[in-house]
Design a protein that fits this description.
With 243 residues, the protein is α/β, with parallel strands linked by helices. The chain has 13 helices and 8 strands. The strands form 2 sheets. Strands 2-1-3-4 form a 4-stranded parallel beta sheet, with helices on both faces. Strands 6-5-7-8 form a 4-stranded parallel beta sheet, sandwiched between helices. The longest helix is centred in the last third of the chain and has 18 residues.
């Protein structure tokens, strides 16, 4: 049985613990043993995007100390953006620990990437009688090549995937970008919600909680009221698993 370490990410830990629990359920349904290293902290992405590479590097070194272990086969996160930080930015950020950064990056995967591309598992036993549309979050799409994985998992569970216009356009969150440029950020979110609403889907699915948090905030405040409910793919899949 494969053993993975859950890299839970800050947003799941602090704001959406139900997504973390759902991620464990989904991985276990796929035949994986999950462990949780309790010493884990932030990956450092907010610091890096805020222009503080020194602070990001300190967090990155700690992350490597926690996850550079042969006690598990892989590190899995329910976040394309945090996974991209580890896989794409750690090796260039840590010149004093480049080889170790590359080693951990090679064993770190986003949830749907691990299920489909590594395990070769598409049907985890979940059954969903619903319609969904998928938001392709920027880091997962552009840094990790994600896109088809989520759709394959959803379709295998029985969900009907209805594509929205411009599924690969940014939602506007972008970490600290949304704080520095709120006018642009909110316009992008409103456009995304408008595109999703035209599908008449029940759910707006993504693999990145920060995007979903941003979109749900705008949906609650300004609508449109017909916009699908934002939900992480782990939560939706877990809801369709046998009790």
């Amino acid at each position: 049985m494969p053993k993975v370490a859950l890299f839970v990410t800050c947003v799941a830990d602090q704001v959406f613990p139900e997504t973390a629990a759902a991620t464990v359920r989904v991985l276990e349904a796929a035949g994986v043993e999950v462990v949780f290293p309790e010493q884990q902290t932030c990956c450092g992405q907010p610091a890096l995007t805020a222009g503080e590479p020194g602070a990001a590097a300190r967090l990155a070194r700690h992350h490597l100390d926690v996850f550079d272990s042969r006690a598990f086969d892989a590190v899995v996160a329910p976040s394309g953006s945090c996974t991209a930080m580890v896989c794409h930015h750690y090796p260039e950020l840590l010149t004093d620990g480049h080889d170790r950064a590359v080693s951990v990056a090679a064993r770190t995967y986003e949830l749907t990437q691990y299920l489909v591309d590594v395990l070769g598992v598409v049907d985890i036993g979940a059954r969903l009688d619903t319609t969904v549309t998928v938001h392709d979050a920027c880091h997962g799409l552009r840094n990790l090549g994600l896109g088809s994985q989520a759709r394959r998992l959803l379709e295998a569970a029985g969900a009907t995937v209805v594509e929205m216009s411009e599924p690969d356009t940014c939602c506007g969150f972008g970490g600290v970008f949304s704080f520095g440029f709120p006018e642009v950020s909110t316009r992008l979110a409103d456009a995304k919600l408008g595109h999703a609403a035209t599908t008449k889907a029940r759910y707006l699915v993504s693999g990145d909680l920060a995007c979903l948090m941003h979109l749900e905030g705008r949906r609650t405040r300004v609508g449109p009221p017909t916009s699908p409910e934002p939900i992480h793919i782990a939560e939706l899949l877990a809801s369709g698993l046998p009790a």
